[in-house]
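Q: How would the structure tokens look for this protein?
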Amino acid sequence: MPNNTKARSQKILAAAHAILEEEGDNVTEAREIRSLAKILETRVNCHYDTAKKAIAKARRQKRGQLAAEWGGARPGAGRPKTE
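A: Here is the predicted structure in token form.
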């Protein structure tokens, strides 16, 4: 069974949100995320790069800057319809 699943990614992101709450992080100010990523890395046993991305994503979500969703229909894509 693969280790990297959607459930694991959501668990890592939830832990990142919890760390931001515990640390009292003010997401409107610039801050080094290295220390927070190190905490997350040890807490959920993930790679440091994954921890950095999760902390950054959690900070963006708290600011209300949601990333664009992947997938979905694209206008003009595909073979032209013949009618």
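The two ends are 46 Å apart (CA to CA).

The helical segments are 6-23, 34-44, 48-63.

Upvote if useful.
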